[in-house]
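Dear colleagues,

As part of the handover before I leave the project, I'm documenting each prediction I ran so the next person doesn't have to rerun anything. This entry is a single chain, and its sequence is reproduced below.
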Amino acid sequence: MSGPTAGRATGQTIDRGIVSDADLRRPGVRRGVRAVHAALLVALVVVGLGPILWLAKAAVTPTQDTLRAPIEVFPNGIDWANLAEAWTRFDIDLHFFNTLWLALGSWAVQLLVAVTGGYVLSVLRPAYARVLGALVLSTLFVPAVVLLVPLYLTVLDVPVANVSLINTFWAVWLPAGANAFNVLLVARFFDGLPREVFEAAKVDGAGPFRLGWSIVLPMSRPIIGVVSVFAFITAWKDFLWPLLVLRDPAVQPLSVRLPALQDYVELDVLLAALAISTVIPIAIFLVFQRLFLSGAGLSGAVKG
């Protein structure tokens, strides 16, 4: 046997691409492919890392150098004092912890709603699950700007409780939980989990809570990582809603406070403050990227 049949018979996987293995053996083709790969890699680095690297450079560059030669690398040295002045002038420690607290609260609320909602729609599957899923899906087609006024009025005077959440973190945390995309994302992931494991747990006497806590959650680390990244980064960079409900500067996050003070500080100090505010989202992604990109959490869930 020869060709694809022989490959299947011997259990070997034949990789096919735009350029065949025979073409890659030709020096001219091989050099051309490598040149294209290198050009694409450089383009990705420039587009993806270029703005971040420029911001890091501008954060420790005097204003005149940034305006006169924005692309040159430290033409007149490095001004580390920008970072200290930005930290002091912007009260970054206060607004940094405000941002961190807002992001953690939004992450916790979104994760709770997404996991429990997806668990009901996909695992428990009550009689009304299809209708409920359709209603959740329909909310994705409502523009977010349409909901700003009714949501603000609700936060201003919460029904039944008759309290105002303005200038409290709850005004950001609670609306963050109403994220239909996360609920549907988690539900679709749960749909792919082996139903045999659920049935075996029910036979062994596991109730809904035990099934979710001991069986479903340990198998769901990849999707929890994905939702965590989405929730944390979205909350960290959110601007419009915190601007509306957090009018007190003492509780405002960095995304709101930095633009409010940009007209009162030098450019280099503002860029230093912006650079500091980008450190945490990048670190969070680097921490969660393994869960985001791999399915390691599912590998040990099914045994035997």
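The first helix runs from residue 4 to 9. Residues 1-51 form one domain.

All the best with the project,
I.
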